[in-house]
Amino acid sequence: MNVIARHRIILPVVSLAVLLAATFWLQPRAMSYFGLNLLFNLAVPIALATIAQMLIIMVNDIDLSVGAFVSLAACVTATILNDTPALGVLVLALMVAGYAAMGVVIHRLELPAIVVTLGMSFIWGGLALFVLPSPGGTSPGWLRTLMTVKPPLIPAAVLAALLIGGITHLMIMRSGLGTVLRGVGGNTRSVARAGWSVTRLKALAYGLAGFFGVLSGMALVGLTTSADANIALRYTLLSIAGVILGGGEFTGGKISPVGAVIGALTLTLAASFLSFLRLSPDWQIGAQGAILILVLTARLLFNRKGVAA
Amino acid sequence: MTRKMMLLGAAGLVAATGAAQAQSDTSGMRIALSNNYAGNSWRQAMLQTWQETAEEAVSEGVVAAADAYTTSENQATEQAAQIQNMILQGYDAIVVNAASPTALNGAIAEACNAGLTVVSFDGIVTEPCAWRIAVDFEQMGREQVAYLAEQLPEGGNLLEIRGLAGVFVDEAISAGVHDGVAQNDQFEIVGSVNGDWAQDVAQKAVSGVLPSLPEIAGVVTQGGDGYGAAQAFEAAGRDTPLIILGNRQDELEWWAEQRDANGYETLSLSIAPGVASLAFWVTQQILAGEDVPKDLTVPFLTITQDDLDQALADTPEGSVANVSYSREDAQQVISDAR
Fold first, then answer.
1. B79, B123 in Cβ contact below 8 A?
2. For chain A: N or C, fewer Cβ within 10 A?
3. Which residues from chain A sit within 8 angstroms of residue B111, using beta carbons?
4. How does pLDDT run across B104-158, given as a tens digit for each residue?
5. What is the count of residue pairs from A and B with beta carbons less than 8 Å apart?
6. What residues have CB less than 8 Å from B99, skipping those under 6 apart?
7. How far is the CA of B193 from the CAs of B219, B231, B239, B254, in angstroms?
8. For residue A228, which phi and psi values (nearest 5 degrees)?
9. B100 in contact with A at a CB cutoff of 8 Å?
């Protein structure tokens, strides 16, 4: 195997670097503390949602309800958490528990995750409309402060991305439990034979995903200052694309938290890049897809070469 | 022209020039349009008007650029990113037709903090630092009843065609209609149906309710439903009442036919997609240092018997009557709001 196939993180890093260089060339104003923050601050909730999706893909499932769940978390944050913080924390905790329960149901009843999560997306969406029937709500003050903080030297958005990538890397790639969780996706049977309760592990993976989904919704409200029941619907597909772009695979167990964060940043940057190019909106969505296919093709080519060598 | 009128005109001209001189130069400034959706004829006409207004303003040196951007997925987070990109692109002002009244507030606050002027129209935003050019839908309902009271002083029975149930616009127009009827008690609303702003739905709904209704003197509508109502009355073999129309090309065509055949008279009113050009000029006025109130109201595009032929000639088939607003129109709207 060659270097690129062995270190699956190289390609996402290179894609992001190339895109970033092209963006700076097109729009030199972006090359500043202020510019980087504007370019990437909306990528923070996307990165958190991508981590949530990655945890599900890690156990060999897929989650079509991330977008609706993040929207619900955003609605709860902008209403209940703001008005009565204790109740808000309780509701958000219940939502995380609900996610863990969803994992148990999927595993115990051997239901396909794609169907269960699709169904759940309508439930989350309905609850979001129930909590916030018309767009509105207010971000809690501390959250707004946190999301607009201006640390010295490094823009907050970049710092947040580094933190999310670093913490999840330690949690999933370095810890013992993380290794077992990846094992659930890679080879469920051998993990079960080794004496682990797969049900509990799946509940943990889904619960963690729910936790990151809640964080994503909170981060989003901190940025937008108020919510809307449909605010994050496109995160579902963005998060899947982010995981794959970041070097993850659908086969379970093969994931990279740092890659996932980079994937989310790359997708956000791709949209800005196309906007700076002044490409017509009719072509933009297609061009975004083209960038995605280009990166995946590059990965496949390198992997093939690696196998051949 | 009498001498007095000439003098008045001259005084007006001096006043206008004086006002123009007081304004600062905007020729080096760049305006961006952030639009969330382009998938229907109204939005297409809106973008078209923006482009025409922008090209003319740029060629005359009023502003340096006025570029239009449309998001591809009609999503608030996508539009928020688009607005943040516009800040980076160094625009002086952003005109927004928003995907959500609240979810863009963070991005708009960023723009305001960076010193940009933000003007929202049609799809307005709640962020206090932005200007809002909104539609007074209740007034649209009241104006219909006021016209009926003028045309039918003896009053009579009214049929109300409403829009899509549960949508804010439908409730607002209907509230205005009921308010108008309360002020003109010679009218009584004897029936109410949902036409969903579509000719076919309106025709079906009116046909269904007509047999149970007494003689109808007038029909109040919400736009996009007048032609269907007329077809339903004709199919039922009843006299065509006074139907208020909503500026759609098929409605105007029907009106012209009826006028030529039997001298039919009515009124047509709706919001013109050209409101984008109004937003452009309001933004230009703000950039020029004019003191503009934060909340402005869009005037309706009203077509009367006299302008019918012109309006019909100007409206492409299947589209909606449009008008492009000028700088003077914007100044009028601003002074009305003061």
1. no
2. C
3. none
4. 999 999 999 999 999 999 888 889 999 999 888 889 999 999 999 999 999 899 9
5. 96
6. B36, B37, B71, B74, B75, B76, B78, B79, B123
7. 11, 15, 19, 22
8. -165, 135
9. yes
Inspect the interface and report whether the beta carbons of A230 and B100 lie closer than 8 Å: yes
> What does the block give as tokens for A195?
């004496």
CB-CB contact of A139 with A81 (8 Å): no
The CA distance from B308 to B325, in Å, is: 19
List Cβ neighbours of A88 (8 Å cut-off, separation of 6 or more). A76, A77, A80, A81, A82
Please name the residues in contact with B23: beta carbons below 8 A apart, sequence gap of 6 or more.
B285, B288, B289, B290
Q: Do residues B333 and B297 lie in contact, with contact meaning Cβ atoms separated by under 8 Å?
A: yes
Longest dimension (CA), chain A: 61
Q: How far is the C-alpha of A121 from the C-alpha of A213, rounded, in Å?
A: 13
CA-based nearest residue in chain A for residue B67: A278
Identity (one letter) of the amino acid at B60? E
Nearest in space to A161 (alpha carbons), one of A23, A9, A50: A50
For residue A37, which amino acid is it?
A: N
ipTM: 0.85
Whose structure tokens read 């007095």?
B4
Residues of A in contact with B38 (CB under 8 A): 281
CA dist B243 → A236, A279, B144, B173, B196 (Å): 47, 45, 10, 16, 17
A42, A50, A220: best to mutate for the B interface, most B CBs within 10 A:
A42
Residue with tokens 């899947």: A240
Helices B137-151 and B168-183 cross at an angle (nearest 10°) of 40
Are the beta carbons of B73 and A285 separated by less than 8 Å?
yes
**Facing residue for B80 by CB, picked from A137, A224, A278:** A224
Average confidence (pLDDT) per 10 residues, chain A, 309 residues: 64 90 91 90 95 94 95 95 95 96 94 94 93 86 91 91 95 91 90 92 96 96 89 91 88 88 92 84 77 81 65
Integer Cα distance of B213 and A48 in angstroms: 59
Instruction: State the Cα–Cα distance between residues B88 and A116, nearest whole angstrom.
Output: 41
CB B116 within 8 A of CB B93: yes
Q: Is B110 on the interface with A (CB under 8 A)?
A: yes
CA atoms within 13 A on the CB side of A278: 8
Tell me the two tokens of residue A245: 């772009």
